[in-house]
Amino acid sequence: METITVKVVRKTSEAEDIASFELARPDGAPLPAFSAGSHVDVHIPGGLTRQYSLCNDAGEQHRYRIAVLRDPASRGGSVGMHQAVNEGDEITISAPKNHFPLQHAAQTLLFAGGIGVTPLLCMAQRLAATSADFTMHYCTRSAERTAFLKEINASAFADKVQFHFDAGAAEQKLDIGTALAAPKADKHLYVCGPSGFIDHVINAAKAAGWGKDQIHLEYFGAAPQDTSSDGSFDVKIASTGKTYTIGAEQNIIQVLKENGIEILTSCEQGVCGTCITRVLEGEPDHRDMYFTDDEKEKNDQFTPCCSRAKSKTLVLDL
């Protein structure tokens, strides 16, 4: 996998518990081009890898900008970025990847929940640059927790953005029914943020008659799973015929690694798609946020970092 060494040329406090990091090549050379909705894998001191959306103008190649929320429930990634990565440091990232691309539409609606604004800010910049018709709804707890508030208000598309604060007056809060009224085939919506926020928007859109091809989403983290009924199952490696038992409190990646079989992972939550593995036989218990419902129904691939098995055995194309 291609990696790029970048220097943190600027670290900025954008809001309460949110810092942005401006990244550039140490020699000033151009970075690979990217499109709105792209993210990069960031290799954090301590050996962790996490995905962060690019939130600067997609026309820029002299820098990338990411923003990171310090999460009290962090597994080490956000805390590492806030505490261990500073201006002047050099870190390693991947080339940009895009699993959340903009599609041409007569009208576009953007719904950002908290730090989920990062890919949508880049989309807003792109839509404004092309004079597209769009509206952005940006929901946060308060103005103090709203990253890029001043930047958006000073932008050329400020009139396209509606802010909704949980701590604000009732009349400024998001009216999801009104926002999603009158769906048309040439309208698309994009939503990113906490899983509860995404589910709220998606469920409202479906209830209002939006088609699934018009709804685009990106999760930043997996929803909590009920693991109380997890049991053991077997994984068979197609190339060797060897079978390994996955215990109720183990995951597939862990057991295979202990037996000398490495599967490349990154987010470890079924969000990024790095560990996708083909399934030749058996039925996976999909617990990822990466695949669509239609893709999950095929049961021909899954994310072993978090998913398990409904059948007694899974035969993997390894």
TrEMBL record:
Residues 233-318 form the 2Fe-2S ferredoxin-type domain. The keyword Transferase does not apply. This is PDR/VanB family oxidoreductase. Its cofactor is FMN. It holds the Pfam family DmmA-like_N. Residues 1-103 form the FAD-binding FR-type domain. Keywords: 2Fe-2S, Flavoprotein, FMN, Iron, Iron-sulfur, Metal-binding, Oxidoreductase. SUPFAM superfamilies: 2Fe-2S ferredoxin-like, Ferredoxin reductase-like, C-terminal NADP-linked domain, Riboflavin synthase domain-like.
